[in-house]
Amino acid sequence: MKTTIDIPVKILDEVLLYSKQKTKKDAIIIAMEDYLARKKMEKFVSKLGTLENFMTNPELNKLRRKK
């Protein structure tokens, strides 16, 4: 999808530098993908420790020893 946006040059230059991409388009795509991955990870991490009736470490170790 084509879009026209005004991105501050300083920010775009930094994204190009850190992403090591050759084009502005590729650098922006990398930045957007990274942003989405971080947001998805935040959502995942917020769920840690919230599962009920999940296997305990001793139960897991017992299963591992059976193999």
Detailed description of the structure:
With 67 residues, this protein is an all-alpha fold. It has one domain (9-66). The chain contains 3 helices and no strands. It has helices at 9-19, 24-46, 57-66. The protein is elongated, with a radius of gyration of 21 Å. The model has no long low-confidence stretch (mean pLDDT 91).
Largest sheet: none
Straight-line N-to-C gap: 52 Å
Structural class: mainly alpha
Query: Total number of helical segments?
Result: 3
- % residues in beta strands: under 5%
Spans with pLDDT under 50 lasting ≥5 residues?
A: none
Order of helices and strands: HHH
Radius of gyration: 21 Å
Average pLDDT works out at: 91
- State the shape: elongated
Number of strands: 0
Task: List the domain count as a whole number.
Answer: 1
Helix fraction, binned, reads 55-70%
Note the topology.
Elements: H1 9-19, H2 24-46, H3 57-66
Give a brief rundown of this model.
By secondary structure, the chain is an all-alpha fold. The protein has helices spanning 9-19, 24-46, 57-66. Helix 1 (9-19) crosses helix 2.
